[in-house]
Design a protein that fits this description.
With about 90 residues, this protein is mainly β. The protein contains one helix and eight strands. The strands form two sheets. Strands 1, 2, 3, 6 and 8 form a five-stranded antiparallel β-sheet that branches. It has a three-stranded antiparallel β-sheet with strand order 5-4-7. It is globular.
């Protein structure tokens, strides 16, 4: 789906610290949404990114990313050994 691409004109806002399978907050493991565009950045290992409705998922591997659409419920399922962070964007 093309709506899962970051739109032009965004600027980097804030970035979370890096999380692991052991340190990821429970809030990220449960369904939640952002109010702005964001991006899941996987530094090591793999993280399953799941959109709740409509149900859609993708396995994000090391050195890759997954855009997060605003106001769309989702959660993450990091596998053991995974390291990842989330970048939030300001923009149009």
């Amino acid at each position: 789906m093309t709506d899962r691409l970051l739109p032009d004109g965004l600027t980097l806002g804030r970035t979370t610290p890096s999380f692991t399978h052991e340190t990821v907050p429970n809030a990220l493991r449960n369904a939640h949404h952002t109010t702005v565009w964001a991006e899941l950045i996987v530094e090591r290992g793999t993280v399953l990114f799941v959109e709740e409705d409509p149900r859609w998922q993708v396995l994000v591997i090391a050195d890759s990313s997954q855009p997060i659409v605003p106001n769309r419920k989702h959660h993450v399922e990091p596998e053991p050994g995974a390291v990842f962070r989330v970048q939030f964007y300001d923009g149009p």
